[in-house]
Design a protein that fits this description.
This protein is of the alpha+beta class. The chain has two domains: about 180 residues, Ribosomal Protein S5, domain 2; about 150 residues, Alpha-Beta Plaits, CATH 3.30.70.890. It has nine helices and 16 strands. A five-stranded mixed sheet has the order 1-6-11-7-8, with helices on one face. Strands 2-5-12-13 form a four-stranded antiparallel sheet. The protein is globular, with a radius of gyration of 21 Å. The N and C termini lie far apart (about 70 Å). It binds (3R)-3-hydroxy-3-methyl-5-(phosphonooxy)pentanoic acid. (3R)-3-hydroxy-3-methyl-5-(phosphonooxy)pentanoic acid (PMV) binds next to loops.
């Protein structure tokens, strides 16, 4: 028995929801109360790169995130590891003298090293890219034959939004009907070439860690917000259909209106939660006003905005020309405080009166 190490490396970008997921109907399996739709970013920005290794010489499972060891004992990591191990297939490399039988995967330990190409502390969704990448790369390592849809339902058990990062382009997470979660998975609506004029700008408003995690925020909303129930049952189903249509037709007008309305309703649900959750701050609100005024003055949407569980703005422009104009406005009204945003890792904005 020679000592060997088998490795695989993968990369997954994060995704930004334009129809938000907020609320679980099953916390353990991470089953949502509504469908959601997102756009996956280009992997050069905001992505996770993960290397997984397996060797008979590893005595336990271990993981390092950005070079620092973290615990794998949480239920979410354990679910992903268990589900992938169960699906591992036989692997043989005669030259290297490696032969792994299907049942061996259950007993072989893994080492996982993951890096984010953006500051993890910047409050930007990192779990979506991280869990998508972990599941995908472990699947490669263990010779798993399942398709992306099935892998997405495993990534979902790491972090709900992670299921949408298995695909590029526009992706829908179908909430599913079954209690076991097997039909709660992601499908690709259109690939990354379909609407590649769109430009996404992320304005980092604050690099502070969010105060309310999405897990506890969702739990509180599900338990206390009457608006959440109305949103999930009445608003989102028709909004999802309209959004699919807008994406199919590259209809920016409709896309932008739906995106802004859905972000605002998600934050309204947060306010409707007891105790209320404030994810956006003053600067976020001022950014919304800036875009709303601009859109209103032109009679049609120029730019869309959307905010997740934090104050940072995600702004979507229909093309590079509008994106350049948007950047000009942002830099004028919200001049960055730090000279080099990418190096300091703690960018923050001030604001100027309009
Ligand atoms: O997957 P989580 O638990 O990080 O939740 C993500 C929730 C939002 O980002 C606010 C919305 C979404 O659909 O991504």
């Amino acid at each position: 028995e020679g000592q060997w190490v088998l490795m695989a490396t993968g990369r997954s970008p994060t995704n930004i929801a334009v129809i938000k997921y907020w609320g679980k109907r099953d916390e353990a399996l991470i089953l949502p109360v509504n469908d959601s739709i997102s756009v996956t970013l280009d992997p050069d920005h905001l992505s996770a790169t993960t290397t997984v290794a397996v060797s008979p010489s590893f005595p336990s499972d271990r993981m390092w995130l950005n070079g620092k060891e973290i615990s794998l004992s949480g239920g979410r990591f354990q679910s992903c590891l268990r589900e992938i191990r169960k699906r591992g297939c036989e692997f043989e490399d005669e030259k290297k003298g490696i032969k792994i039988k299907k049942e061996d995967w259950e007993n072989l330990h893994v080492h996982i090293a993951s890096y984010n190409n953006f500051p993890t502390a910047a409050g930007l969704a990192s779990s979506a890219a991280g869990f998508a990448c972990l599941v995908f790369t472990l699947g490669k390592l263990m010779n798993v034959k399942e398709d992306y849809g099935e892998l997405s339902s495993i990534a979902r058990q790491g972090s709900g939004s992670a299921c949408r990062s298995l695909y590029g382009g526009f992706v829908k997470w179908c909430m599913g009907k079954k209690d076991d979660g097997s039909d709660s998975l992601a499908v690709q609506l259109a690939d990354e070439t379909h609407w590649n004029d769109l430009v996404i700008i992320i304005a980092v408003v604050s690099s502070k860690q969010k105060e309310t995690s999405s897990t506890s925020g969702m739990r509180d909303s599900v338990e206390t917000s009457p608006l959440l129930r109305y949103r999930a049952q009445t608003v989102v189903p028709s909004r999802v259909l309209k959004m699919e249509e807008a994406i199919k037709n590259r209809d920016f007008d409709s896309f932008a209106k739906l995106t802004c309305a859905d972000s605002n309703q998600f934050h309204a649900v947060c306010l409707d939660t007891s105790p209320p959750i404030f994810y956006m701050n003053d600067t976020s609100h001022r950014m919304i006003s800036l875009v709303e005024k601009w859109n209103h003055s032109q009679g049609t949407p120029q730019v869309a905005y959307t905010f997740d569980a934090g104050p940072n703005a995600v702004l979507i422009a229909p093309n590079r020309k509008t994106a350049a104009l948007l950047l000009q406005k942002l830099l004028y009204y919200f001049p960055p405080q730090d000279k080099d945003l990418s190096r300091c890792g703690r960018p923050s904005c001030t604001s100027r009166d309009e």
